[in-house]
Design a protein that fits this description.
Elements lengths: L1 H28 L4 H17 L7 H4 L4 H11 L5 H13 L13 H36 L4 H15 L2 H12 L23 H39 L2 H8 L4 H13 L1 H4 L2 H10 L2 H6 L5 H10 L3 H29 L7
């Protein structure tokens, strides 16, 4: 068992290296990079000075000399071959230096860490709410399989599953965010502008007031999947011989369920905890965009649109590392909750 996990830990480094090579290479081939953007800004500035409508003037187009273009490439590090740039970036990465953001002109690590608390808050809170609701609901549905409660709850679950989280966010804003109907909740940010002047109780209420609608969207995504996974897993255990044996030996049906079957039914749920780490920190792009939340998801989208390669690569490295570590944690959790599992 120890040899297996040690091997998995050692495989993180070559796997992560391969991911960085592929992603770095792809980003270098994407048009409209920082050099092109800088040249375009200079041309637009020259066009503005010369007057509008002169964008096709040869004099304007030739306003940038070859030397200026080379200086721009040198400033962004694009004066070197791709392979050389990769090894320079990799050397900085080994020293935990992710470079400097083109957009924010700050260290990438500082830009990313400033967004982590927001994504972490929404991710952990949404995860906690999802598990607190879905596990009891799944247990209840399994114990009442085929009854009216199971049928009506299934309708509601699949209705929630069929609505994309971002579409639900837009709908909630229209209904409760000052759209066509009620104006009960703020539709952007995580705190009010006057947050610092509020008392402690008012600060807590203000955060909850801003978080409610996004949290509904965060939890709706995995709501149906987790509920049905819990129900089906428990129903599978209820059909096993050991449950009938426990009842035959004198335990009540509910005692057999909660003392024996439930523990085995929770194995698929528990083993997903490791993989959730990367999901929590990655943020939800569309939800953060709809509610204007400056989290990791929105940062990743903006870095790709703005061709901010250092930030995009930094996010890829962090999310890939978390995913690889999460898989190992998932295997470890599986080995803990199910002693029958033996990794080699």
């Amino acid at each position: 068992m120890r040899a297996y996990f040690l091997k998995r830990l050692l495989l993180i480094f070559p796997t992560l290296l391969g991911i960085t090579i592929v992603c770095f290479s792809i980003m270098q081939m994407v048009p409209g990079g920082p050099v092109e953007q800088a040249i375009q800004k200079i041309k637009m500035a020259a066009q503005g000075e010369a007057g509008g409508g002169l964008g096709n003037d040869p004099g304007i187009q030739s306003a940038i000399t070859e030397q200026e273009i080379e200086n721009i490439k040198k400033y962004y590090g694009f004066d070197k071959p791709v392979l050389t740039r990769y090894f320079i970036w990799l050397g900085k990465l080994i020293r935990f230096d992710l470079g400097t953001s083109y957009t924010y002109e700050k260290p990438v690590l500082q830009v990313i860490t400033s967004r982590i608390p927001i994504s972490l808050t929404f991710g952990l809170t949404g995860l906690l709410l999802t598990y607190l609701v879905c596990i009891p609901l799944g247990i209840k549905k399994a114990l009442n399989h085929g009854e009216r409660y199971d049928q009506w709850s299934s309708v509601l679950i699949f209705l929630g599953y069929s609505i994309p989280a971002f579409a639900l966010g837009v709908l909630l804003i229209v209904l409760f965010g000052g759209g066509t109907f009620l104006n009960l909740f703020p539709i952007s940010g995580v705190v009010s502008d006057h947050f610092e002047q509020l008392s402690l109780f008012d600060k807590i209420f203000d955060c909850l007031h801003h978080m409610l609608l996004p949290l509904i969207c965060y939890t709706i995504g995995g709501f149906a999947t987790l509920t049905l996974l819990m129900k089906n897993s428990l129903m599978e255990q209820l059909n096993q011989d050991y449950v009938r044996t426990a009842v035959a030996k004198g335990l009540s049906y509910h005692q057999a369920v909660f003392r024996h079957a439930l523990r085995n039914a929770l194995i698929p749920i528990v083993t997903n905890i490791g993989m959730i780490i990367s999901v929590i920190l990655s943020g939800a792009l569309l939800i953060e965009t709809v509610f204007t939340i400056d989290g990791m998801g929105l940062l990743g989208y903006q870095s790709i649109v703005n061709r901010d390669y250092p930030v995009a690569l930094g996010l890829i490295v962090i999310s890939s590392l978390l995913m690889l570590v999460g898989r190992i944690i998932s295997d470890f959790c599986l080995a803990v909750v199910d002693p029958r599992i033996k990794f080699r």
